[in-house]
Amino acid sequence: MAQRIPESPEVTAHTEEAWVSVIQKMDEAYADLVHYQVEIEDKNAELNEAKSFFDSVQGSMSDLLMVCDHQGVVQQVNRSLELLVGQSQSALVGVHFSTLVSVCYQQKVQSFSEQLRLQPIRDCEIALTSPQGDIPLSMNCSPRKDSRGRLIGMVMVGRPLGELQKAYKALNSAHAELKLAQERLIQAEKMASLGRLVAGVAHELNNPISFVYGNMHALKRYTAKLLVYFDEIQSGASRESLKELRETLRLDKAIKDLNSLVDGTMEGADRVRDIVNDLKQFSSTQASAKTEFDLVHVVRSALQWIIKESKHTIRVEDNLPDYLQAWGHSGQIHQVVVNLLQNAADALKTTPTPSIKLSAGTADNQVWMTVEDNGPGIPAEDLSRLFDPFFTTKPVGEGTGLGLSISYGIAIEHGGTLKIENQPHGGAIAEMVLPLKECSDV
After folding, report:
1. Where does the record place the Histidine kinase domain (predicted)?
2. Which of 44, 206, 239, 297 is deepest in the core (most CB within 10 A)?
């Protein structure tokens, strides 16, 4: 039997140290494993929480969500899309998204991948197939990239146009009602202004009508004389008796007056026609196309109406040219001028020597017109509110507060401006600027 050689004290000590080192390494490795296990569990909890959050967001989205790879193969969808197309996520994942698109939009969506390399797709109208038929969508499509910025897919978010169309329909309906109310308001103010001008128009019409009436009486007398003379000719009267009758009836003077009487009658009738046309144009509710018109004629026509209707004498300084072309609706501009002149006349009620100065001209492809008065001016606190609807400084029953507001809207709609300021030497000045010719934005 072999005898065991006893180890030396040095070898024994070395062996013990080796075992201690191994045990220490094992403890360290175990501690690391425990630490990594804790980290993994934390990460797993975070992932579960993130997945739960993502799933809850997806489930609560009313918009449709579809995630595809770079070839357009569906990788994930949300609940809204499942309900819309009537298929589960398991049936949708793995199919090309274009198979869900209506046939008439197939060609449109084929270029999505190429378009995304340049820029996202916004508000693209397509339609998805469903058991209920094609459903139109407003689709946004964004690129999905990896950490190195390479395109790896696309994310599509859509909203059924049914809801948008309802909203647009409601908005259009509200806008139409507002526009109708505005038109009625404008017409009401116009007719109120027209009512204030009736006396002036009646006076304006009275002159040419009286002129025509007088001429027609003269023509009636001359006609009676000519009938007597012609009857004598028909009866075979002698030359001498006809000559005597001609002198007695003063036919030579009557014949000389015929042309002037006819011309005067025609001139009076033309004046009545012009006044009536201006009146019809001012009061018309029908929308007409914008055309070229003479701003000076519009201003002077409005001035005649206001001055004739005014209960006190107003001196007018006319610095208007003979003709000034402008562009727009002459009837609407007539209303603006009437409002400006009426306000100036109202401001002069307490002025000892009231006067209005009218000026007009062209500058920078625009036409301008000003109305100046020598009244008390406008209080500083009211200047910023002049064009506010229903704001008026007149007593109750004398103004609606809509005249200047409507006038301002008309000027802006024509591509022009309207402003009213106080003059340094007293009184107020209103300036209207209009396009000289048709503008693309008017």
Report:
1. 200-438
2. 297
User: Domains in the chain: how many in total?
Assistant: 3
Residue entry with tokens 């003479």: 294
Q: Is residue 20 part of a domain?
A: no
| Contact assessment for residue 387 and residue 408, using Cβ atoms and an 8 Å cutoff | yes
What pLDDT shows up at residue 7?
A: 54
Tell me, what DSSP letter sits at residue 73? B
Nearest Cα neighbor of 374 from 394, 359, 355 is 355
Could you report the per-residue pLDDT of 68-126, keeping only the tens digit for each? 998 889 998 988 888 888 888 889 999 998 888 988 888 888 888 788 888 888 888 88
Residues 215 and 323 in one domain: no
Measure the N-to-C terminal CA separation of the chain; round to a whole number of Å.
Answer: 124
Pairing, β 135-145 against β 417-422: unpaired
Find the helix packing angle between 161-234 and 239-249, rounded to 10°.
130
Residue ending a domain, choose from 129, 150, 165? 165
Give the separation between CA 182 and CA 147, rounded to whole angstroms.
Answer: 57
Q: What is the pTM of this model?
A: 0.44
Q: Is residue 403 part of a domain?
A: yes
Is the Cα dihedral 245, 247, 248, 249 positive or negative?
positive
Work out whether strand 355-363 and strand 315-319 pair parallel, antiparallel, or are unpaired.
Answer: parallel
> Which residue type sits at 228?
V
Question: How much is the average pLDDT of 397-416?
Answer: 75
What letter would DSSP give residue 95?
A: S
167, HSE (Cβ side, Cα atoms, 13 Å): 6
> Taken in order 105, 106, 110, 113, is the CA torsion positive or negative?
positive
Q: Judge contact between 251 and 226, C-beta under 8 A.
A: yes
State the pLDDT at residue 23: 80
Q: How far apart are CA 370 and CA 207, in angstroms?
A: 29
CATH no. for residue 76? 3.30.450.20
Q: Are 232 and 241 spatial neighbours (Cβ–Cβ below 8 Å)?
A: yes
- Closest listed residue to residue 402, CA positions, set 246, 245, 181, 219: 181
